[in-house]
Amino acid sequence: MTRALTLGQPTAIVSSNRNTSQAQAPHDPQRDCHVVTEDNAAQRFRTLFISDVHLGTRGCQAERLLDFLRWHDAETIYLVGDIIDGWQLRSGWYWPQTHNDVVQKLLRKARKGARIIYVPGNHDEFLRDYFGTHFGGIEVVDWCIHQAADGVRYLVIHGDHFDLVVTQARWLALLGDKAYEFALIVNRLFNAVRRRLGFGYWSLSKWAKLKVKNAVSYIGEFEKTLVDAARRHEVEGVICGHIHLAAIHSDFGIRYVNCGDWVESCTAIGEHQDGRFEILTWTDVLHERGGDDGGDEEPSIEIRAA
Known about the structure:
Blueprint: E1 12-15, E2 43-50, H1 62-71, E3 72-79, H2 86-91, H3 97-111, E4 115-118, E5 134-135, E6 138-140, E7 144-147, E8 153-156, H4 164-168, H5 170-196, H6 204-211, H7 213-232, E9 237-240, E10 247-249, E11 255-258, E12 267-271, E13 277-281, H8 282-289, E14 303-305
Parallel strand pairs: 1-7, 2-3, 3-4, 4-6, 8-9, 9-11
Antiparallel strand pairs: 2-12, 5-6, 7-8, 10-11, 12-13, 13-14
């Protein structure tokens, strides 16, 4: 059974198209400037969408995200929830320098002209007390409407509001979080062996999601519920995170986009200047480059088209 949720008015309607008549956030002259990048070789997108980084956990692949941010820039960057894992930090503090570096990298991009919009999820729900505020140039909103370059409008929301386990059985969600953490430990050991044998990264959890019948059913119900929410808000698409499985499809009559995560798959969504959306998979790039150290060689980015 899907859960109907009626959201209030959007915190923001966001469009990077400067000439549009669509209502948007207050004008800031700095946002009319091109993003100044640290590396002129960085690939530039109109918009980047990143979710489920889970800073503060041992499973977070902060080094890979830092490398990704070195090679990518955008006019607008959405942080689509679970960027900081408040659940884990409450049970035990873990915050290495690389996690702090990710925060500093994002703040630096904001200072250089990128508009950064933070849509909190369930793991960083503590930020839901600060809707409408700015932290170092990062805007915190409940949810918003993104207008793509081709005029298509998307509801941008983390997605936990539509997860019955999170909303109605929180204890089960917390238990599942611990089980997932254990699975990630097994996954790291497994991939350490694969690296020694010369193989690329492989996600055990992602494989299970696509093979286990109940998991596949859950994913399908989640996607349909998010699409229904987009219909209720009279938009043509939805962009979310939460289930750690990147996807772009229109199987239910409305464009569904999921950012994936930076715990296993290391994926993000990029919007090009013509409104075309693509899944960017960074683990594949790192394997092609022969390591995870974020070297100086320009990567040949593997992209899955919408």
